[in-house]
Amino acid sequence: MFEQLDEIRQDCANRLIRAARDRKSPMHTPVIVTADVDARVMVLRAFDMALWRLRLHTDTRAPKARAIAADPRVAAVFYDKGAKIQLRVRGTARIESEGVEADAAWAASTNFARRCYLGDGPGALSQKATSGLPPEFEGVEPDDAQLLPARENFAVLLIDIVELDWLYLAHTGHLRAQFSRAGEDWEGRWVAP
Fold first, then answer.
1. Rounded distance, CA 96 to CA 105, Å?
2. d(Cα 148, Cα 162) in Å, to the nearest integer?
């Protein structure tokens, strides 16, 4: 089934495309790790196969924004239990709160999703359990005018993939392949699991 490196790299791309488009994909919510060795589950919003770029959404006030500004190295782990495939990626990240890509991502978001950027910044201290949202927006979808202040807190996290590590778990023997970018091309190799 998995015998050619080019087929495996294409399979990786297909899985990332599906993960971004399909909320039910097991790879829709990867673990993203920043260079400060902090990890978090995030939602994959888009994958650009031509650029091998992941797009996720974030808050400009989040600690990961400062971590990425200090050191853009990131890693991500995707896992599909049913297919028994793990995909680890490494790349460089940047956070963009302005520009075409951030504006398009904001425009494509629902008002219910946008309301997350109205509340307290991620990690803000509270005296009680809280969503961080202003009370008037708990369980309520704000209108466009109410969301105007939220836009300044919204950003896209863009990750340019430079390395892929693919692992297929099989009772007959696991298989593993690695890929590294060489300019516009990829170099692949088989490695022991």
1. 11
2. 36
Tell whether 169 is covered by a domain: yes
Residue 140 lies in a domain: no
Residue 70: helix, strand or coil by DSSP? helix
DSSP annotation string for 127-141: SS----S-GGGTT--
Residue 37: which CATH number?
Answer: 2.30.110.10
Residue 134 CB partners (closer than 8 Å, separation 6+) = 118, 119
Domain for residue 131, yes or no?
no
Sign of the torsion formed by the C-alpha atoms of 63, 59, 25 and 47: negative
Long-range contacts from 108-111, C-beta under 8 angstroms, 24+ separation: 109/57, 109/154, 110/141, 111/141, 111/142, 111/143, 111/144, 111/147
pLDDT at residue 1 greater than cutoff 80? no
Question: Structurally, how many domains does the chain consist of?
Answer: 1
Confidence of residue 183 (pLDDT cuts 50, 70, 90): confident
Parent domain of 40: 5-112+154-191
